[in-house]
Structures are given as structure tokens and as C-alpha cells.
Amino acid sequence: MNFIHLQSRKATENDMDFLLDLRIKTMNEHLKSSGFPTDDDTHLKRILYEFETAKIMMYRKEDIGLLKVKYKKDEIELIQLQIHPDFQGKGFGKHILKMIIEESLFSEIPVYLSVLKTNPAQKLYARVGFRTVEENEHSFTMKFSK
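-> C-alpha cells emitted (146 positions)
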């Protein structure tokens, strides 16, 4: 895959239909199996969480996903990374993660994320170097650091 065509743009209110559809397609199964609600209002609340950090990921000018990253003084928080199912398994998520890891290595600031235990994305996170540092009933907190 040629990732030179991978771009991002700031998410706006005009993206809400895409973001709701994306969230339903990427998260409903994992949320249901963890006992969490999957109604539209709950999804919209999560979409709006830290919305100022939201970027629409695009490939060849087509919207393919969502990325939310919050840069703090002593950590980088990967809030959300969702790739539309039509584009999963093609290396986009891994490529985006590696870009965030490069920022982490350059700045010498660790990256943290939280992932549901039922979400197979945790395997991808582990493959690129994230390690579980905490867990609760439903999720793992994972960290990447040098």
C-alpha cells in the first residue's frame, strides 16, 4: 500500500454522519460483548469527547477513519483510532500508529491508549510495541515508550 496518499483533516460537524456510521461499524460488536450501550446518543457522546483533537483520516481523498490524539506535557494520549472496515487489514492503522510512535520517540514522551479487552485491535497495538500497564474489568491501558 502506498501511504503517500494518506492525509488527515480536522473533523467538523459536517462529518457527524460519517463518524456515527464509522463508530457503529467499528465498535458496536466490542461494546455489546463488554456490556456497554450502543445507542446513537451514547455513540455521539463518545464522538464529541475531545472533538477538538479529531482528525478525519483520508486515503486518495476518501474518508477512511478517525484519529484523536491529545498531546500533554508528559504523555501522548491516543484517544481513538478507528479505520472503516472497508480499509481494515491494509496497513493503515499500523502506519498511523508508527507515525505516533515516531513522534513519541522523537519527543521522548510515552504514548498511552485504552482498548476494550474484546477488541482485537489490542493485538495490533502489541505488535507495534505497546505493552499492557493496567487493566480493569473491561479494558487494558497500554503504553509505548522507548
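DSSP finds four helices and seven strands in the chain.
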